[in-house]
């Protein structure tokens, strides 16, 4: 039995052929026990216990483990206040930034999980963590349960979630208190589940919507589920069919908030009969792209290197036939309009806009992502034609729920492993390649320049 650095190591030999090395790591302060069992094959001629490998000696090769992330005996994992994980070797009283087995570095959220607080114990001067709900105390930082490897490159991303993951599962254990998210079109459907999920984890939500009554009803639903969450939700009028309303919304937001952590461009329309807005543009184009373009540029001063912009697009962007852009391509006349084509084009504009925005704002450190939420998700987007309502109802058993459809948006807005990345397109909470057209630098720049011209023309 070896006692060293607050840990107890016990080595047991059960027979002359099989040695079972059981290492019990006991932190006497937090009363937390971690166990690891290793089977060691011994020689027939060497049955004595002294010939077992001594795990307490760091000079011998580290034994294999079922989990490469498992720490060797007498090692401890800790985290700094700003989220960097480091490792303590209690044998030689040293520390290091890299994992002793894998050589990789990790980070955790700068925020404690929901309901946890950090204190200094008066009797010992040591840091202690308290779960306010259960009153359970621990000397182990609870953030370490959600530590992720630092990923500065896209190729290092690992898929943690899939099509069956819900938004609340993505946010499990996260505390978003102090964060502010503006979400367009979030009083129903996928947008509501996005807002609800963030609010239930402490995030302040700005409902940027056209319908005030529906928005307040949505906020009331959140309040009934969790009163403190509903109290952090606010409504700001935003009619995306009006550039003037978009400017008024931006002005109101800037007068009430000093910073946005998340700007989620969720609103969109589908299968509209031909119509034009008060600004003279085809409605699908303006609601789905142009007003979002204006809103984003107007809110630029509230965004910094900690902010993320998430643009909800669709796999339908792959079906757009556009290869060049002109004003008539963006906002077609009645004789060249078909609702499905307009929708596909609008989704392409979303991906093009996100890509160009990420390039222009990359030096500011702002992350910009676009995504596909799911196929034919049952929401109010199909309300404009009875045929689509019937079709969406028929396929509902085979498609994502609204909670599942919101998961990729939530992932793009909050995942720690996306820090430092930008300009990516996601499907099922994982990065994937968008269409070839959407990756065209010429198309991206052309859309930006045309959008600027159209907005400036209306402003005059």
UniProtKB/TrEMBL annotation:
GO terms for molecular function: oxidoreductase activity. It is found in: Golgi apparatus; Lysosome. Its main location: Golgi. PROSITE patterns: WW_DOMAIN_1, WW_DOMAIN_2. Residues 69-102, 110-144 form the WW domain. Keywords: Apoptosis, Golgi apparatus, Lysosome, Oxidoreductase, Wnt signaling pathway. GO terms for biological process: apoptotic process; Wnt signaling pathway. It comes from the Eukaryota. GO terms for cellular component: Golgi apparatus; lysosome. This is WW domain-containing oxidoreductase.
